[in-house]
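Severity: low
Component: inverse-folding endpoint
Summary: output formatting inconsistent between runs
Steps to reproduce: submit the following structure tokens with default settings.
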């Protein structure tokens, strides 16, 4: 999800006027001012990217959570119906309480396994804004290189 974000205050005309003098010829105060403005703009852009990434992850997380909850409800309803049918069927061969105990244990085990699988898939979902972290690391590296060149 690569996004180009530019604040509304960045008009091409003001951007070119601001950078009319090459850095080698600009006074130190102007360079510090540029660095401050550029740094502020960069931080705003990175924060906007992080917010967009986190909003996307939150939407995905909500969808996965709803799917997991719905699966649990359907599983529970199905387990109740199957339990009743299987207990009635097995009760023709053994005592009703043994049939209920056997079927209940089997279905509870199956349900637990399914819920644990869903939980592991949900916990594997990465919600960190990886793209923003990469961008910030590249920005820091670029700034350090620029400082060391001077």
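Observed output (run 2 of 3):
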């Amino acid at each position: 999800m690569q996004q180009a974000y530019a604040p509304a205050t960045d008009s091409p005309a003001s951007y070119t006027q601001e950078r009319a003098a090459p850095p080698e010829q600009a006074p130190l105060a102007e360079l510090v001012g540029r660095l401050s403005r550029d740094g502020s703009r960069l931080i705003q852009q990175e924060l906007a990217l992080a917010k967009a990434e986190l909003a996307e992850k939150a939407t995905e997380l909500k969808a996965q959570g709803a799917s997991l909850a719905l699966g649990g409800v359907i599983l529970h309803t199905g387990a109740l119906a199957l339990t009743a049918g299987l207990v009635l069927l097995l009760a023709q061969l053994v005592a009703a309480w043994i049939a209920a105990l056997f079927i209940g244990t089997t279905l509870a085990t199956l349900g637990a396994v399914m819920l644990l699988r869903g939980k592991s898939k949900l916990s594997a979902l990465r919600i960190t804004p990886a793209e923003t972290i990469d961008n910030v690391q590249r920005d820091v590296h670029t700034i350090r290189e620029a400082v060391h060149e001077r």
